[in-house]
Specification:
Elements lengths: L2 E7 L6 H9 L7 E7 L4 E6 H4 L2 H5 L4 E7 L1 H19 L4 H8 L15
Parallel strand pairs: 1-4
Antiparallel strand pairs: 2-3, 2-4
Helix pairs in contact: 4-5
Length: 117
């Protein structure tokens, strides 16, 4: 499981390093959400950590985790912050494009998929 180099972390997330270790071991924390780039759809998705602990995601993890949040509301606030950062950086609100530009080594976009379909 890969993590974005400039990981977006919610204000109420305590000890993000510990949470990252738990996610890598596929241990879930109820009420904890991640913002993940899913390579098959070329889009960002808000997922519960409980979902990522299921067997399917153990074998097919998200391409990159870009945000950590306590609760869905905080995850939505992080997506809003990403949109603001993307607009300031690129002049448009294409989150996948922005994330790929700011971390080209760790965040790879599948050619032909832009996430704007």
């Amino acid at each position: 499981m890969k993590f974005y180099k400039n990981l977006y972390i919610g204000d109420t997330v305590k000890k993000p390093e510990r949470l990252i270790k738990k996610l890598k071991r596929h241990q879930c924390k109820p009420g904890f959400f991640v913002i993940a780039y899913m390579e098959d759809t070329a889009r960002l998705e808000i997922c519960s950590s409980v979902l990522l602990a299921q067997w399917y995601y153990k074998e097919n993890p998200p391409a990159c985790i870009v945000g950590l949040a306590n609760g869905k509301e905080e995850a939505l606030a992080l997506v809003e912050k990403m949109a603001g950062d993307a607009l300031a950086f690129t002049g448009e609100v294409s989150l996948v494009k922005y994330l790929a530009q700011t971390d080209p080594d760790g965040f790879s976009v599948v050619p032909g998929k832009t996430g704007t379909d």
